[in-house]
Write a structure and sequence with these properties.
With 239 residues, this protein is of the alpha/beta class. The protein has 2 domains: 41 residues, no CATH class; 196 residues, Rossmann fold, CATH 3.40.50.2020. Helix content is 41%, strand content 15%. The protein has 10 helices and 7 strands. The strands form 2 sheets. The chain has a 5-stranded parallel sheet.
Amino acid sequence: MSILGNILRDLTSVIFPNRCIVCGETVDSSVHGICLSCRLSIPTTGFCYRHQNPIREHFEGLFPVDECSSFFIFKADDSWQRMIHNFKYHDKWGYALTMGRWFGAELRASGHYNDIDLVIPIPLHWRKSLKRGYNQSTYIAEGIAREIGAKLDSSTVRRTKNNPSQTRQHVKDRWSNVDDIFTVRDATKLENKHILLVDDVLTTGATISSCARAILNATPTCRVSIVTLAVAGELAKRL
């Protein structure tokens, strides 16, 4: 980089300092947006290193599933929850990409996800996507795909019904709320592939189960694995 380039970079860092996406403290660009203190304090699960783990046990019996994991435990009113809300509701999509790459590096290191062919984010309905401007799960999935060397596919699976938000619904209602809301546009693209479904936060698992069943019904020859950035709600309390 030229001397002028270095000067401009330094001036930019003073005027617009890099901030940790979790705690907001100033950080060096070399740490990729998350300070050392937050990296050490994140309540990770370590489930990606275990084939049999509580996330996989949760989905077993609902549909055939290969690998399952959630990166960290989502706790109400902490800095990690605020970080998720920022990328989910406040246009901080870059946070989702950063976290996806961090999680993806862990998945790669575990060795359990090295044969993934396609990484598919849980899709939003087009109306919700248009209103929000993006799908946060797509950015998480993109970060993961980069790290594990798989292809991102955000177009083959579609959400056909704009169902109400799951956030304030009773656990039982969440399962009926997501019946038949996904469809596969071109099943041939998924044939004999190992697919990794990606979502932001796992609560009951109703939405991701509905999506997995739609894929397996359309393409019985594929394999499905599941990861979410965080795990929350009643499921997290049992971990």
